[in-house]
User: What shape does this take?
Amino acid sequence: MMSPVVPADHSPPRSFKRRAGRVTPGQADALERLWPLFGVCIDDTPVDLRALFGRCAPVVLEIGFGMGEATAEMAQAQPECDVIAVDVHTPGQGALLRQVELRRLTNVRVGDGDATTLLRSMIGPDSLTEVRIFFPDPWPKARHWKRRLVDEAFASLVAARLLPGGRLHVATDWEHYAEQVRRVLAGHESYDLVDEVPWRVRTRFEEQGLAAGRVVHDVVAVRR
Ligand SMILES: C[S@@+](CC[C@H](N)C(=O)[O-])C[C@H]1O[C@@H](n2cnc3c(N)ncnc32)[C@H](O)[C@@H]1O
Assistant: This one.
């Protein structure tokens, strides 16, 4: 099968709102000291993944890591994988950098910016082993559904960056969003939905959803 084609940039509304959040002194210190070592600015410059991690290993992209606890725990448990974790939330970036240092992780890089820009302009075709999106902003109101990250155009963009056999794993506690993701991926020519859910760590937003009585859905698709 030919590699999936990147859709034209239709500039959808952003899937995130930059949240004002207090950066603690510990996070500020981590950002100042560790960003030059582990930080990735999201712009339009293509990134050389081998050079970024200093080795050739399977690369996982996590979009929207929040405070990064699950990201760090998974990276520690999977030292054979390299992880680019991207979010726009500054306190979370500081928190994840602290975890990288505390756990002595060498396989994590932290991106600051919109993951769609990273995918479109910085990562080459057939590069990623897995894309993880755990508890994306649900945008529950109908007038905001267009802001949801996972739609047809996004699925095509991810497919163009995944290796054949690579995986897109989306977890959400919003039934309506889960249905949307399933529908988009089931109808997409580049993916097969699979039943087997890979191991992952429970996240902060997941805990909140469970505490509120919501049910968690993991949707996993493999690139053809
Ligand atoms: C609801 S939080 C979930 C955080 C974490 N995954 C968890 O489960 O605890 C969603 C996160 O995705 C980030 N986000 C949303 N759209 C994004 C995008 N296009 N690029 C980077 N981060 C994004 C938001 O800033 C937010 O931190």
About this structure: Residues 41-223 form a domain with the Rossmann fold fold (CATH 3.40.50.150). The chain has a mean pLDDT of 95. The chain has one domain: 41-223.
